[in-house]
Write a structure and sequence with these properties.
This protein is mainly β and 451 residues long. Helices cover 6% and strands 51% of the residues. The N terminus is likely disordered.
């Protein structure tokens, strides 16, 4: 609908003309277009990575992964403060798998959504990853999200490292009873991103594998949290009840003091509802950073106790990881611990793991930034695999160096990465097939166009 406003000058001129005056009417202003309740956003991505290894060279088809993704989200605003959102994501190889790559970032199609292994298809897929209603009330002091959405909580969250983001069927309420205090309550029914697998329209969400591997978590999970800001310190406390599976706690505080950033984390998971008593997992992490002009530096350390069963990581993606994390077969998702690796995630949250991480970022200008990050993980244990599959208890060490350059070229967000990593497994059982020492180099390119 178009609205036309008559300016005061034009009104006076029209009156003078009717009275016989000679004042010329001012130019009528251009119509003001009413804001549309509809909005469209999305992105198109092309990701490629190649990794060498024993008997495999860089850029060989069998050593490369590549895929294309297109995501589009449509929103409709109504009743002043409410919005309906629907989004879809499609994956394709565009024939790259015929002669350029031998694998993909996310398996899609065929048996990729039914849980069977090994996955046999790297084909195309299309699924609804967003379908929710969001709104605010009480002058913006209350926010509600109902439906399929992305989440960002310490132990159930949307990961952004891959070509498509995992989402959740959830209901979340956030209330601000006073300034600088937010209370959160949420029910998470299901999730669609377990390891390297993404669900398609034909397969539904992940169901019983949505939270902890090898457990029936179809009842979903509850979480409550309090997040407060005190001067330059932000503190948060989260409690989770994954029904019939586990209870968990996450505590974190981050502060900034005259250019220095300081943080501390503590996490605890009790899987006794699974029938595993006295196998609680706990971890702590600390971080120190400093920022000056175009340079930012940080270092972090984390330690997970070695008596636990499950990983201190994303409970919605526990079955696999990127790089050595996926190759290891250890059930560990990406972690929110400060020390998480840039690429080979899945180790820092495992029982017994001690991890040190250090990073530096340099912003050359508004277009270019460079990051170097080093992670060293020691004594990560395959406790759950050993307990459930009667395999030998093994410990893993992993080192990673990642060098990343990011820029914007011709409307494209571009990231180029080089990653060196080594991975070693020791076991008391000399015949344990996974034991050994391995290293590799990986070159990666990420192209994203946002609209």
């Amino acid at each position: 609908m178009k609205l036309t406003k008559l300016s005061l000058v034009a009104a006076l001129a029209a009156s003078a003309a009717f009275a016989g005056g000679d004042i010329k009417p001012a130019a009528e202003p251009k119509p003001v277009e009413a804001a549309s309740p509809w909005s469209l956003s999305g992105d198109a991505k092309l990701f490629y990575a190649t990794t060498d290894g024993e008997g495999v060279d860089l850029f060989a088809q069998e050593s490369a992964i590549g895929q294309v993704a297109l995501s589009a989200d449509v929103s409709y605003s109504f009743a002043n403060t409410w919005k309906a959102n629907v989004g879809m994501t499609g994956l394709a190889t565009l024939g790259l798998d015929d002669n350029v790559v031998g694998d993909v970032w996310l398996y899609a199609g065929a048996n990729a959504s039914d849980g069977s292994l090994p996955f046999t298809s790297i084909g195309d897929a299309l699924w609804i990853d967003t379908a929710n209603v969001t709104g605010t009330a009480y002058d913006g002091k209350a926010t509600l999200i109902l439906g399929r959405t992305e989440l960002d909580t310490p132990l159930a969250f949307t990961e952004t490292w891959s070509i498509a983001n995992n989402t959740f069927d959830a209901a979340v309420a956030m209330i601000n009873p006073m300034d600088k205090l937010t209370l959160v309550a949420g029910y998470i029914y299901d999730g669609n991103g377990n390891g390297e697998r993404i669900s398609t329209l034909g397969g539904g969400f992940t169901g019983s594998d949505g939270y902890f591997p090898f457990a029936d978590a179809e009842a979903g999970a509850w979480t409550v949290a309090a997040i407060g800001k005190f001067d330059t310190v932000t503190a948060q406390a989260w409690y989770y009840d994954v029904m019939d599976v586990a209870q968990a706690v996450w505590l974190q505080a981050d502060g900034n003091f005259k250019g220095f950033a300081v943080g501390a984390q503590y996490a605890y998971i009790d899987p006794s509802d699974l029938g595993f008593d006295n196998f609680e997992s706990s971890a702590f992490a600390v971080k120190l950073g400093y920022e000056m002009d175009a340079i930012s530096l940080w270092a972090a350390y984390s330690k997970v106790d070695d008596e636990g069963l499950v990983s201190i990581s994303n409970t919605a993606t526990m079955l696999s990881g990127a790089g050595w994390g996926g190759a290891s077969g250890y059930p560990s998702g990406q972690s929110k611990l400060y020390t998480e690796a840039w690429w080979n995630y899945g180790f820092v949250g495992l029982p017994g793991a001690s991890t040190f991480a250090i990073a530096a970022e340099y912003k050359l200008n508004d277009d270019w930034s460079f990051t170097a990050q080093y992670n060293a993980v020691a004594d990560a244990q395959n406790t759950m695999v050993a307990a459930l599959f009667d395999e030998p208890l093994a410990t893993t060490d992993m080192n990673e160096l990642a060098l990343v350059a990011e820029t914007t070229l011709y409307g494209l967000d571009v990231a180029l990465a080089y990653v060196y990593s080594d991975y070693s497994v020791e076991s008391l059982d000399a015949e344990y097939a996974a034991a050994g020492t391995f290293d590799n180099n990986s070159l990666q390119a990420y192209l994203t166009y946002k609209f």
